């Protein structure tokens, strides 16, 4: 990466590195599952910039080779096509395993529920097995979805969740909950240094908007720039809290890199809550779009509110998000 003539995304990388300046990963070997996905590719790029060796594992189910194409000739980068729900051995010492591999878009839950269950249960077990064999630290990217239709806002890590096992979202929510249980089992039974991040809605460049992949922000942006109807599910009164990718990766790597956090679970998200309708209006305004709103049926089990309590992240990680929604959306439009 040539820092002297930075491309736009180099500035995003620098932002993350600034938030990690008290941590050090040089010469560590770090395995990132889902390394060519939206979050995984940013994580790989940042880790390479810290001087780490990075092994990126991806089966390109929802990740895309182009996300890591610009890294593929980096001397410390190894890219392997593999589905982590099947056993894998890197064959060399690994210091940290970051398990990010999973489809995450609710639009995919209907089409790929078995894959989603496998990558978060069998995949987590296989990734934990690698960490155990090489005595590595382990980061699991869990989700705010473990809280389901929550009853406490902002939601703290101590809230145990209200999830419909049998519903359309069950494949994701319950798989992530099982993934967390796997982590805690390896922590208790084998003394593995596991850390669990509960990620709240995150957005930024490299997110997919095509086909079944579209999360709300890339979808609305895509619709707005094409002056196509903006598809509001329900009345758009449901809320989400949107974390820009540079903030999210900083939080995740602080959780992975700081000492004395074995067995901890931490919410990583932005604590500012927005209705989906307000989000749509903001995107229409920022893009100067002529799009109209098109109200569609509300998908089943779509959580009514979602907002994280990030007290623990502030205290244990010395972290909080810095990028406001409007600024993050403008960056996304610029770098898309
Ligand atoms: N949403 C919407 N229109 C869309 C896509 C999503 O109104 O075209 C809403 C969806 O109902 C949910 C929120 O936006 O309440 C966030 O959806 P997303 O798919 O990003 O993920 P979720 O937070 O539900 O996991």
Outline the structure in words.
The chain has helices spanning 8-18, 38-49, 106-109, 113-120, 122-133, 170-190, 216-225, 245-257, 276-287, 311-317, 325-335, and strands at residues 29-33, 53-58, 77-81, 96-99, 137-143, 194-199, 202-203, 230-233, 239-240, 243-244, 264-268, 274-275, 293-296. The protein contains 11 helices and 13 strands. The chain is α/β, with parallel strands linked by helices and 336 residues long. It has a domain at 10-201 and 244-269 and 308-322: 3-Layer(aba) Sandwich (Rossmann fold), CATH 3.40.50. Helix 1 (8-18) crosses helix 2 (38-49), helix 1 packs parallel to helix 8 (245-257) and helix 9 (276-287) crosses helix 11 (325-335). The chain is globular. The longest helix is centred in the middle third of the chain and has 21 residues, at 170-190. It starts with 7 loop residues before the first helix and ends with a helix. Helices cover 36% and strands 16% of the residues. The structure holds uridine-5'-diphosphate. Uridine-5'-diphosphate is lined by residues 105-106, 201, 215-216, 219, 231-233, 236, 238, 240, 276, 299, 302. Its cofactor is NAD(+). It comes from Methanospirillum hungatei JF-1 (strain ATCC 27890 / DSM 864 / NBRC 100397 / JF-1). GO terms for molecular function: NAD+ binding; UDP-glucuronate decarboxylase activity.
């Amino acid at each position: 990466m040539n820092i002297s003539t930075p491309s736009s995304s180099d500035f995003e990388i620098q932002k993350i590195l600034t938030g990690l300046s008290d941590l050090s990963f040089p010469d560590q070997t770090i395995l990132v599952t889902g390394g060519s996905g939206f979050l995984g590719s940013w994580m790989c790029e940042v880790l390479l910039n810290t001087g780490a060796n990075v092994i990126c594992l991806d089966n390109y189910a929802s990740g895309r080779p182009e996300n890591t194409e610009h890294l593929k000739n980096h001397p410390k980068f190894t890219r392997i096509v593999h589905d982590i729900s099947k056993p894998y051995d890197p064959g060399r010492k690994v210091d940290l395993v970051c398990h990010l591999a999973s489809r995450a878009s609710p639009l995919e839950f209907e089409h790929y529920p078995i894959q989603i269950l496998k990558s978060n249960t069998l995949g987590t077990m296989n990734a934990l097995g690698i960490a155990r064999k090489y005595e590595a630290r382990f980061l699991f990217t869990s989700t705010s979805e473990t809280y389901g239709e929550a009853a406490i806002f902002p939601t703290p890590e101590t809230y145990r969740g209200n999830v419909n096992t049998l519903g359309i979202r069950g494949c994701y929510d319950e798989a992530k909950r099982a993934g967390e249980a796997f982590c805690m089992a390896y922590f208790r039974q084998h003394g593995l240094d596991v850390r669990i991040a509960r990620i709240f809605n995150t957005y930024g460049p490299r997110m997919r908007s095509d086909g079944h992949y579209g999360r709300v922000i890339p979808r609305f942006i895509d619709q707005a720039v094409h002056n196509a109807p903006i598809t509001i599910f329900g009345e758009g009164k449901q809320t989400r809290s949107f974390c820009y990718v540079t903030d999210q990766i900083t939080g995740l790597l602080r959780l992975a890199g700081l000492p004395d956090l074995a067995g901890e679970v931490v919410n990583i998200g932005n604590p500012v809550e927005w209705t989906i309708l307000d989000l749509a209006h903001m995107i229409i305004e920022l893009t100067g779009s002529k799009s109209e709103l098109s109200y569609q049926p509300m998908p089943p089990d779509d959580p009514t509110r979602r907002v994280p309590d990030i007290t623990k992240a502030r205290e244990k990680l010395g972290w909080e998000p810095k990028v406001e929604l409007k600024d993050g959306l403008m960056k996304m439009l610029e770098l898309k």
